[in-house]
Design a protein that fits this description.
This protein has 514 residues and is mostly helical. The chain has 22 helices and five strands. About 4% of the residues have low confidence.
Length: 514
């Protein structure tokens, strides 16, 4: 005869299998999104910059010295090794990000287990995977997705370390805190905005657990910081980026760009509203979960799990996630310039809080007893799970329909023409690196990023662009986004004189060759 403990273990296994199945389905779908659009109609400028920079690094050009890079080096280093192993293609670059995204969901599920139980992990994975912000960040070559992977893993490890019972060995907790620090360090070495993941870890550390004296909490904080520092140094060494130039290009450059972009609350509000509208399901449930946390902020536990073991630990983890969301929003409000892809940092805390809301609905509907056993009676209606599933399927189907990739015949033709006009060993100067990257043509490492912000900040001058025209390695010019026409018209005139062979891809889009 099965005991209550055996039944509970069986349910946990089922929840874990359900969450793992959702992760596998999402992984397969994301791979299909990557494979279905080798010449995407919609892509972000940064994708071309990061792919071209990683290709330059794969060719032996050190980051920050030979190749300009305005972001921490970890993802670029990983992409460089990917290109060396699997070849240079947008599919291999995006596929690397897809592989990261499965770990993102796993870390998110582990956090949800601490805040609401094993069933909440299934809710969290389902809600996050159906959020458009997650879908985009999970298969495009941006820093936010991989950074949030390490951030989620760091918080999950920190929760496992800081919210364990007194029966756990101190050495295990120490190892978990050090591991949380390593994951946090890798997150920051992917994207500086991942620094916000330290907020929930600090909440757990400062929580006055009577079973953990202040001296031990200080030791755990030192392990967290030491693990982060060790991981950061290791990432810099492995990517050959251990130099002051890395600090200049990632911090000083962004400081200069921020000065050029004064706070614009109307634009920030519009972007925030657009994010909320596109991700309304996770935002609505996440805010409802936040509302369930705030009124009981001063209490040791919430009524949701008051009768279950670990109730206080669950309450602390919810507060930590609420603080994480608040710090993420604050970071977005002060970040300049702010772009839509930056909002991906909100996905994890929103999904965890949204899962808490779904769990509250499930329990208050009378479907589950205080220790997880299914209740019987008319109030345990099967309509409740059916309704929850139906409500979730509505944004899911909308997200799937909106994410179906489209190809660009114009981009495909331009890539083909660039391959014909520029010899394989030659290099290209362009205002859209993705065109040259898809054509498997190298870009001058110092000019992988020719963004308007870099030019406005004075970190890329017209003189440097015109000097590139005299470089014998440069055999092609791709004028695509219009950045050069707006910011350096004299460079465009000089290029058209020096590169007489011309092919027009579309109005205002030219490919020039010697």
């Amino acid at each position: 005869m099965k005991t209550t403990s055996d039944a509970e273990s069986g349910r946990r296994v089922l929840f874990i299998l359900a969450a793992a199945s959702l992760v596998a389905l999402d992984l397969a779908w994301q791979w299909w999104l990557v494979a279905a659009a080798p010449y995407p109609a919609r892509y972000d400028y940064d994708e071309g910059v990061y792919a071209a920079t990683a290709a330059a690094a794969a060719d032996g050009n050190p980051l920050y010295t030979s190749a300009f890079l305005s972001q921490p080096p970890l993802l670029i280093g990983v992409l460089a090794h990917t290109f060396t192993t699997f070849g240079r293609s947008l599919a291999s670059a995006r596929g690397t990000v897809v592989a990261f995204s499965s770990l993102w969901l796993a870390g998110l599920a582990a956090i949800a287990v601490r805040t609401g139980g094993f069933r909440a992990a299934v809710w969290a994975v389902a809600i996050a995977a159906s959020a458009p912000a997650f879908v985009v960040a999970s298969h495009t070559v941006q820093m936010e997705g991989p950074a949030e992977v390490f951030a989620a893993l760091s918080v999950a490890l920190g929760f496992a370390a800081g919210l364990r019972t007194r029966h756990d060995a101190g050495s295990m907790r120490a190892a978990l805190w050090a591991s949380a620090g390593v994951a946090a360090g890798l997150a920051v070495m992917t994207k500086l905005t991942a620094l916000t993941c330290f907020a929930p870890l600090i909440v757990v550390l400062v929580w006055r657990n009577p079973e953990t004296p202040a001296r031990r909490r200080t030791a755990f904080a030192a392990l967290l910081a030491g693990g982060a520092a060790l991981a950061a140094v290791a990432a810099l060494v492995c990517t050959r980026s251990l130099s002051m130039e890395m600090w200049r290009q990632t911090v000083t450059f962004h400081t200069a760009v921020a000065r050029l972009n004064p706070p614009d609350l109307s634009r920030t509000g519009a972007l925030l509203a657009a994010f909320a509208a596109a991700n309304w399901f996770s935002v609505a449930l996440g805010l409802a979960g936040l509302a369930s946390v705030l009124p009981r902020w001063r209490y040791r536990d919430f009524d949701l799990r008051a009768a279950e073991p670990g109730g206080v630990a669950a309450a602390v983890s919810r507060r930590a996630v609420a603080v994480w969301l608040a710090v993420d929003v604050a970071a977005l409000l002060v970040w300049r310039p702010l772009w839509p892809h930056h909002f991906a940092i909100l996905v994890t805390p929103l999904a965890v809080l949204a899962a808490l809301t779904a769990e509250i609905i499930w329990r208050r509907a009378g479907l589950t007893g205080p220790r997880g056993s299914m209740r019987q009676g008319w109030w345990a209606s099967p309509l409740v799970p059916v309704a929850l599933t139906a409500v979730w399927l509505f944004p899911l189907t909308a997200t799937i329909a909106a994410a179906v990739p489209e190809g660009s015949a114009t981009l495909q033709a331009a890539v083909a023409q660039t391959g014909l006009a520029v010899p394989p060993a030659a290099e290209v100067v362009t205002d859209d690196p993705l065109v040259a990257f898809l054509a498997n043509r190298s870009i001058l490492p110092t000019l992988c990023d020719t963004s308007e912000m870099r030019m406005r900040a004075g970190w890329l001058t017209v003189t440097a662009l015109r000097a590139a025209l005299r470089d014998p390695r440069v055999r092609g010019i791709v004028l695509w986004r219009g950045t050069f026409r707006r910011m350096a018209p004299e460079f465009v005139n000089d290029a058209m004189n020096r590169f007489p062979r011309r092919w027009t891809a579309a109005p205002g889009r030219l490919i020039l060759a010697r």
